[in-house]
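Now for one record:
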Amino acid sequence: MERKYTVLIVDDSENNLEMMSDMLRDDYDLVTASNGVDALEEMRGENRPDIVLLDMLMPKPDGYDILKIMSEDEVLRFIPVVAITSDSDPSARSRAFELGAVDFLSRGEDMSFIRYRVRSVLRLCEMDKMRRENERLRGEITSERRLSVLMDNLPGGVATIRTNGTKCECTYFNNKLINLYHMGEDQFAMQFAVPKRPEWLEEIVTRAKSAENFTFEFSVENRQDYNNSGTRQWIRVAADSIGETDGMNELYCVFLDINAEKQQELRAEESGKRLRENQSLLQTVFNNAPGGISFSERDDNGRFHTLFISRGLAKMLGFSSIEDCLAVISQNPSYGISTNDTMTIKRLISEIPEEGGSFKYAFRVNLDNGHELWVSMRCQLTHGDNGKVNMYSFITNLTKENR
C-alpha cells in the first residue's frame, strides 16, 4: 500500500484550517497547528511532515519568523513550505521566497487549486530527494572505488591489523601485500590463525602494547608455494594506531619492499670490507717498502696536512714509532729541511697543473740527533674522491751515495 504524505497546515483561523483540511483530507494525512510555536513542535516531532502550508500573517512568531527558523535548522530546512497570505503586496511574495518557501498562494486566488499545488510541490521535492540520494550513493560507490584503487596503487602493501596484546587478526589487506609475500590470499590470512604466528607478526603484537607508532625491518622467505622456497624478501613495516575497536588496538600498517636497499647495503658492506682489506694490504706494502712514503691532503686554505707516514720513513728520520713521527711532522711539515729547500719544494708543488702531476727533488735533512741525511723525494699530486688534492711522497735515502 502506497504511503500517504503528511501535510502540516498552519493557520490562526479555524475557518481556514477547516477549509484546507476538507480539500486535502482524502489524499493526505493531515496535522494542523493554529500558531507558530505549535507548528515548530509538530515539525520537530517523531512524525515530521512532508510539506507545510504556512499562513504568513499570524501573531508572533508569524510565517516569516517560522521560515527564518526553518532555514537555520539543519533538519527543518529540507521540509518544503507553501506560503499562504492575503497580503497583496508583491514584496510579501519576494520575502517568502527569499526565506526559503518553494511556492506561494494568495487567498485571493481560487483555493480549490491548493490540492494541485501541493501535489506538484511534493512530486518535485520527491524527485529532488531521489536525485540527492542517487548522488550520495554514487559518491559512496565512487569513494569506495577510489579507495580500493588508491590502496592497490600505493607503493607498498597495506593492512589493518587488530590486536589486544594476545589475540591478533587482520581485517583488510591489499593485493600488493600478498604479492610482496609471494602468497595467495588464504595463505596470508592463515598466518593470523595458526597457533605459532610468524616472527614479524609477533613483533607487531609486542610493539603495539607500548607504542602508538613504530617501524622495523624483517625478512621472510619468498614462498611461491609450500613445497618450494625462494630467496629472502626484505620488508620494512610502518604501523600507526588508529584507535580501538571492540577492545582491540587497530593498526594501519604499510609494508615496503626494501630488497634493493638491502642489496645496496650488502654491496656497500662488502665494498667496505674489501677496502679495509686493501688498505691493510697497502699499509703493509708501504710500511715494508724500501725508503719512506707519506700521504698528505690539501685543505681549503691550500695547506697540506700529513695523514700517513710509513714505518720506513719514521725509521729514516730517527723516530721509534710512526705515531711519534706523525705528531712531529703534523706540527712542523718542514721538519729538518732548510728554509731554501722548503721554499723550493713549495714552488715545485705550486707549478704542478690543477689536474695533477709530479716532480722530483733532492735535499738535505738535519735530524734532532745531529745526523745529516741526503734524500731524494718524488711527489705525485692527484684528486681524491672527496674532491680534495692528495699528495703522495716517495723518499729515498741517498746519504751513502753522497759520502
User: Anything to note?
Assistant: The two ends are 130 Å apart (CA to CA). The chain has 13 helices and 15 strands.
